[in-house]
Amino acid sequence: AGRTYNDLAQYPVFPWILQDYTSEELDLNNPAVFRDLSKPIGVVNEKNAKAMREKYENFEDPMGTIDKFHYGTHYSNSAGVMHYLIRVEPFTTLHIQLQSGRFDCADRQFHSIPATWQALMDNPYDVKELTPEFFYFPEFLENQNQFNLGRLQVSRELVNDVILPKWAKSAEDFIYKHRKALESEYVSAHLHEWIDLIFGYKQRGPAAVE
């Protein structure tokens, strides 16, 4: 799709493919563990879909220059890439530069895969998809450089390695199972629906509204 590792604003984008980040075991033969790839991530949760529909239907630009739209943010942008890859260079340095010379507050850091998914389900305006690293690069989930990423405000927990789903025993195990999910029969049968949304005919026009 003309995307490249050399430009954070055009970084390769992969979908969230699972919706089960809490089970002890991951059953890839069960369609219920997979995210609905026919819908944008912002409306996978029906509650969010309702809010997004209402926002779209009620939107009116007083100047008459802006068309109705569903999302004011993007499924991939440079800040989102740095958010996921903060533990590895050069993304650490780029993140610090973006935040005026320091790490962003700990509560806004990428610190847990289950919590990140839950935040997506709770917030219709967070529509970030994933980067390719989620499927091949376990090191980005580990704070191997021992960066001081701060403490969470409520739990006072130190932000260190990314917290994994219960079904993953290690960063390597997460990548292995996540890659297996990507290459599963279910995703092979439905991935084209997501491609239509992100790169294809459902980006704009009547199909996008639908």
From TrEMBL:
Pfam families with a match to the protein in the record? Beach
Keyword Oxidoreductase listed? The answer is: no
Output the InterPro entries linked to this UniProt entry: BEACH_dom, BEACH_dom_sf, BEACH_Domain
Q: Which UniProt keywords apply?
A: WD repeat
Is the ATP-binding keyword given for this protein?
Answer: no
List residues of the BEACH domain: 1-210
Q: Which residues form the signal peptide?
A: none
The name on file for this protein is Neurobeachin-like protein 1
Q: Which organism is it from?
A: Macaca mulatta (Rhesus macaque)
What lineage does the source organism belong to? Eukaryota, Metazoa, Chordata, Craniata, Vertebrata
Q: Which gene encodes it?
A: NBEAL1
